[in-house]
């Protein structure tokens, strides 16, 4: 059904939005010209707005705000002539037209105030609005042979503290009259006004079940007419998605957060579904996104870096494109897209169905439904290690614990608090059999249902037992081992997280925590800074423990790497990981701003190099000043590759490269790296 999606890599998300107040609605929309422009730009799939947040429908519909033109009906045959697929976008819970006519359908708080995100109200999934939008979907699917549906604004994740923006939270609780009545009918109790923690958990499950029910109804409606349609929704398959029922993984990720886009792609790569990362084609208007309906397209260098990140993991970077409200589109937009998509078309043979070649398994085991309070910290912990590993050029997969761990030299468990007994057993067996484990923070302190354990589930592996939270907002870390002090720093490192107090049970301390002399307050500040370390208040910070044939290094605090204040912490994470990988599959002298991704594709190896310096926002690259890197040296450990011999090394599609075999390693030099290079070993 969705196989074609994973074999095409040139997709556009067309935000056709033409509200009633706009001049000349649809007057300048030319479907043939638009389709020709897409074809010339090498676009192979278009995700088209068929209903927007205003409630406007761009196809004839018995419900919803009508548009003067049948945009879908006019454009679809033109695309089909050119073998360009079309996925129909439907805004679900943002619908100002329907929610203006029926304010009782809005999601509200206990005072009756509607939930609103900037200009748009959100519909209650418990209200008759669902019948309204299902009818709209039914009429589209019945009359237009589209290739798929993309459903937006599906309330999914629990609203928890998190750094990684990729999913719309579900405000809890929804106190609409419909939600209250259904809750009471199903539970026999009133919807609590001030829910306890346990009640909040129950309410989240209740709300999530209603969303799940709606999605299943939508799938049935669509497949009743189009059984082979690809169906997905915004944030489908993201780490915080508690339902994960779509055909495609679909996650937003925006420049200049290139490392975050890479995290999304690496997460999706091992999930067994085709995936897309969606980014605005225009310059963003918010820190972590926006620009979806902007007309000032990003510079080519930015688009090129983003596209390369998704391609390196076998996915699609889907760019948003906004025509003017009258339907016209600036030709310069297509010219820019062509310069991104045409080179990608030449690389497609080397992009499909890649398997990562990795020394490290980075565990991302969120339980966004059963342990919904904890998914945010699990996500932030994994992203922090991801950022550090990219800079160090260590090869790793982001995986869950249902996977065979034996092929990895190191497993990293970054603040993965909620783990089941089966997951704990897999980790114990891995370490006992000789594997190396690097863990941090609250890993294994909760079970898969979000219930606190009395001790770490992996206490015997860590070599420590949990006592309590250390009772301070921050503290200092002093590294004790000479190797760590040399590679990281001999200075005290400020850890700006709430640490854990642990008691040794066989582990060796290699880094100690120094509590501050006082907490943070205006009365205790040292000018603008924090209180100094108290040499008399010392706790185990980093410990090493032998377990069976393997070993574990545990850090008794969450680790975060974002921004300059965490520069030493980020370096520490990279060094701890590198020291536990004796012989990495890949080594290079490339600088940290180059991302290297090594994949296997049948009996050949494909190495992507992405120059993220070209996407620097504060020093943007244009044609005359784009930073290219020269003479990057790369070595691959042949003992870790399934190749009997190396017959050829080349840059895809067909530029040969010299190579040598020395001491069991394949050595190559990449003469020039502009934005993206694909190096192939056969």
Q: What can you see in these coordinates?
A:
The protein has 682 residues and is α/β, with parallel strands linked by helices. Helices cover 26% and strands 25% of the residues. It is built from 14 helices and 33 strands. α4 runs parallel beside α6 and α7 packs parallel to α8. The longest helix has 29 residues. The mean pLDDT is 94.
Which tags fit this structure?
nine-stranded mixed beta sheet; 682 residues; eight-stranded parallel beta sheet; Rossmann fold; TIM Barrel; single chain; Immunoglobulin-like; 3 domains; 14 helices; alpha/beta
Strand order of the largest sheet: 15-14-16-17-24-23-22-19-20
Q: CATH class of the largest domain, please?
A: Alpha Beta
| Low-pLDDT sequence parts | none
CATH topology call of the largest domain: TIM Barrel
Distance between the termini: 31 Å
The CATH architecture name of the largest domain reads: Alpha-Beta Barrel
Strand content: 25-35%
The biggest beta sheet is recorded as:
9 strands, mixed
Beta-strand segment tally: 33
Radius of gyration over all CA atoms, rounded = 26 Å
Helix content, binned percent: 25-40%
What is the CATH H-level superfamily of the largest domain? Glycosidases
What would you call the shape?
A: globular
Q: How many structural domains are formed by the residues?
A: 3
Query: Number of DSSP helices?
Result: 14
Mean pLDDT: 94
Structural class: alpha/beta
């Amino acid at each position: 059904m969705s196989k074609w999606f994973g074999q095409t890599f040139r997709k556009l998300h067309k935000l056709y939005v033409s509200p009633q107040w706009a001049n000349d609605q649809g007057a300048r929309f030319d479907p043939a010209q638009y389709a020709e422009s897409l074809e010339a730009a090498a676009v192979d799939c278009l995700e088209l707005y068929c209903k927007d947040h205003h409630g406007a429908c761009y196809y004839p519909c018995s419900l919803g705000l009508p548009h003067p033109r049948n945009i879908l009906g006019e454009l679809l045959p033109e695309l089909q002539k050119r073998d360009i697929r079309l996925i129909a976008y439907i805004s679900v819970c943002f619908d100002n037209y329907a929610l203006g006519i029926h304010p009782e359908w809005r999601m509200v708080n206990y005072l009756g105030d509607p939930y609103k995100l900037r200009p748009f109200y959100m519909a209650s999934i418990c209200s008759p609005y669902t019948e309204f939008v299902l009818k709209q979907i039914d009429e589209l699917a019945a009359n237009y042979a589209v290739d798929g549906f993309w459903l937006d604004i599906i309330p999914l994740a629990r609203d928890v503290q998190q750094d990684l923006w990729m999913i719309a939270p579900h405000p809890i609780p929804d106190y609409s009259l419909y939600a209250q009545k259904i809750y009471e009918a199903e539970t026999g109790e009133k919807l609590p006004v001030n829910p306890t923690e346990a009640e909040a958990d129950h309410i989240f499950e209740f709300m999530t079940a209603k969303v799940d029910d709606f999605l299943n109804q939508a799938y049935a409606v669509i497949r009743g007419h189009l059984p082979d349609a690809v169906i997905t929704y915004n944030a489908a398959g993201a780490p915080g998605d508690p339902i994960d029922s779509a055909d495609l993984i679909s996650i937003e990720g925006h420049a200049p957060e290139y490392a975050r886009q890479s995290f999304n792609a690496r997460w999706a790569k091992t999930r067994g579904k085709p995936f897309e990362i969606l980014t605005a084609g225009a310059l963003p208007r918010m820190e972590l996104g926006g620009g979806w309906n902007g007309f000032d397209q990003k510079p080519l260098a930015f688009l090129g870096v983003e596209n390369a990140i998704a391609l390196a993991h076998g996915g699609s970077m889907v760019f948003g494109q906004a025509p003017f409200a009258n339907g016209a589109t600036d030709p310069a937009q297509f010219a820019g897209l062509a310069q991104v998509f045409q080179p990608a078309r030449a690389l497609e043979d080397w992009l499909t169905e890649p398997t990562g070649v990795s020394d490290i398994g980075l565990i991302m085991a969120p339980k966004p439904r059963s342990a919904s309070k904890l998914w945010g910290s699990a996500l932030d912990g994994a992203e922090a290690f991801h950022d550090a590993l990219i800079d160090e050029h260590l090869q790793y997969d982001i995986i869950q614990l249902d996977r065979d761990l034996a092929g990895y030299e190191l497993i990293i468990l970054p603040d993965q608090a909620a783990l089941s007994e089966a997951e704990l057993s897999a980790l114990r067996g891995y370490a006992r059999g000789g594997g190396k484990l690097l863990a941090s923070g609250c890993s294994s302190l909760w079970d898969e249902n979000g219930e606190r354990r009395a001790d770490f589930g992996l206490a015997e592996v860590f070599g420590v037992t949990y006592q309590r939270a250390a009772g301070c907002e921050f503290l200092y870390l002093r590294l004790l081992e000479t190797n760590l002090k040399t590679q990281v720093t001999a200075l005290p490192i400020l850890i700006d997280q709430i640490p854990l107090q642990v008691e040794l049970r066989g582990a060796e301390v290699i880094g100690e925590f120094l509590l501050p002399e006082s907490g943070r307050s205006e009365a205790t500040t040292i000018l603008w800074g924090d209180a100094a370390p108290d040499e008399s208040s010392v706790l185990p910070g980093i410990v090493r423990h032998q377990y069976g044939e393997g070993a574990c290094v545990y850090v008794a605090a969450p680790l975060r790497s974002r921004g300059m204040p965490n520069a030493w912490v980020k370096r520490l994470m990279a060094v701890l990981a590198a020291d536990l990988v004796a012989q990495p599959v890949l080594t290079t002298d490339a600088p940290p701003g180059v991302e290297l991704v090594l994949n296997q594709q049948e009996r050949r190896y494909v190495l992507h190099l992405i120059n993220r310096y070209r996407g620097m926002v504060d020093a943007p690259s244009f044609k005359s000043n784009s930073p290219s890197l020269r003479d990057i040296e790369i070595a691959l450990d042949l003992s870790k590759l399934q190749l009997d011999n190396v017959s050829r090394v080349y840059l895809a599609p067909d530029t040969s490269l010299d190579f040598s075999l020395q001491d069991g390693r394949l050595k190559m030099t990449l003469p020039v790296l502009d934005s993206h290079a694909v190096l192939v070993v056969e």
